[in-house]
Batch of 2 targets.
Target 1
Amino acid sequence: MDFKSLQLHEPILKALEEEGYTSPTPIQEQSIPLILQGKDLLGCAQTGTGKTAAFTIPILQLMLSNPPKDQRKRVRTLIVTPTRELAIQIGESFKAYGKYTGLKYAVVFGGVNQNSQVNAIRTGVEAIIATPGRLLDLINQGLLSIKEVQFFVLDEADRMLDMGFVHDVKKIIAFLPQKRQSLFFSATMPPEIVNLASSILKSPEKVTVTPVSSTVEIIQQSVFFVSKTNKNALLIDILKDKKIKTALVFTRTKHGADKIAKVLSLNNITTEAIHGNKSQNARQRALSNFKSQTTRVLVATDIAARGIDVDELEYVINYDVPNIAETYVHRIGRTGRAGAKGTAMSFCDVDERPFLQNIEKLIAKKIPVAPHTYAQGVSDIAPKKEATSKARKKVFNRNK
Ligand code: AMP
């Protein structure tokens, strides 16, 4: 299948060609025809599958096909996403795919002064890409109306739940007209998400791509069994490899991210940290330095990293093993995007073993163990006091 066979309008095809897209990704192949038919959609897809284009392209097509009769500009599309980084990234996609359509959009998110966003809205935009809090703020101030929205997208719904946005989302839905087309995307589908989806969608078509295990297959994964105290030394050691032009390092905590950034910087490795305590400007600056390879290592927490879309990011390093298996898949999904090469290394200390087991269960494969200088036999990797010698032996054998 190619994009031409979807009978998209010429301005969209031209933009896709310029982006270098030749054929749709599986989520696009499945979703675009359904959305074009006006169906509600429940998409189970993670980032890196091309899901942004899967909803942006058909929405642009439908907006072009059905211009308002009275020429009055109103918000016809609303895309709600949990983080500012994601909002900006979706905005970039809207800009790229819609560049010849003449359709105007605005991106709104919190943490920055609202004036420039309000000014953009006042110019008469037809699409809004927003994080929930700022969107509600602007609606409540009477600066934005979503009463005439025809196309509503809720992106990364599971993350919305994690971040405690569910009430905001429900309030937003209450402002939307009953008659609309709704698209709902989530990487995972726990029961709360299924409930939320059923309150938003009408007889949705379901699209599931890449059960988590298949996306991660193209990524070369390895686990380094290492004690907490040796993680910094191991990281510095790995980064001696000049092949690693840039690497995204994940940590569970903001404090951890800052500490690692400090240690790496002291070792002459250009590093910046991004997390929720950093200002929007600092985060954007760190991200663009990383994209331009001025910064070699970006240390990020899970939430801050969610919107990072760096073409050709080859290395992801999990400084700690995430306690939620799906988070591992999200993290390593930052690399190996759209068929590119990807390498994911995870540092696992003895307390993190159970997390590793859950991950291996989820992705339905064993992650190969990497040999390294700091895996000095049993002492480094042995479980603490309570461990049996049998368990120790197992750990040791696995690490050989
Ligand atoms: P997403 O899952 O939306 O975060 O997209 C992941 C990456 O895939 C982005 O960098 C897109 O630019 C890229 N991409 C999306 N669709 C296609 C396509 N049909 N062909 C090639 N690359 C694509």
Target 2
Amino acid sequence: MNELDALVTEAQQSFAQAATPADLENAKAQFLGKSGRITEWMKGLAALSVEEKKSRGAAINAAKQVIEAALTARRQTLAEAELQQQLQAEALDVTLPGRRRGQGGLHPVSLTLERIELIFGSMGFEVADGPEIESDWFNFTALNTPQDHPARSMHDTFYVESPAGATPNLLRTHTSPMQIRHAVQQVKKYRTALDAGQPIPEIRVIAPGRTYRVDSDATHSPMFHQCEGLWIGESVSFKDLKFIFTAFCRTFFESDDLVLRFRPSFFPFTEPSAEIDIQFQRGPLAGRWLEVAGSGQVHPNVVRNMGLDPEKYIGFAFGMGPDRLTMLRYGVNDLRLFFDGDIRFLSQFQ
Ligand code: PHE
């Protein structure tokens, strides 16, 4: 084997050993570069005779061509390997199922509130909304519950810091302040008609929302929901309360034979007052009485605080617990489950 053949073999081996394109370019420089081995051979030609130049030159060129071919082949192999590797790294399994966006849904209590609004809406009730941080006036005093009234002690709540000497605001203990807020708004709207002794539209509203008390057990949570109802007109009676509330419960629970009991009770802002219990005729709760609301004829002092003449205007109010209604409707035995935020529990209501 002559020296040129040996050089070709050496170049081929060197190219084959190059594992990356960069290695390969380094190897190329050793053989084909400016001061590479082939170039050295070319330079050697200068000292030779014309005849020798011809034959040696041809041999060197032939060797150079073989080396170049080997280089090109190796370049291609490396480029292909690189492409394969890249393809593999970016491989997509088109048979995998797509990633779905988790489908959210309404909270069970929100579902109940929607239902309440729908049912009362169909009976001509507006829906009103009000602040959760409430003043002492709206939460208690305007509702015929002055400072030191014993009924206040049943509404232990969270007070908001306020300047020294000022009556502190509080997280509302019930939605009843909305009776006053909404009525006052309506009265303002119809002030001129009222002053002229003309009739004004009846006040018919529900006010659902969050309420707060210092309470926590299976049927009480420090934050809970209430829905207030108010109907004021010139001849709205206790009979209307019984009719409306019974119709609501029967529609809500989809049970035409549901029985209601109006149990005499006391609230400072209604007179007479009643607590409303319902009894299921069928199902797991059959026979049991369950309290769902407080209610009564709006007290004359409260009607006066609404800006209306209690000699002329009369009506009823009720306050019910949507959380309780949700428990009853779905058979849930611990109220706190609604507010723990456990998706395993909540997703069952979708
Ligand atoms: N606000 C009362 C409570 O939270 C319920 C109620 C509302 C009673 C309206 C009578 C009239 O206990």
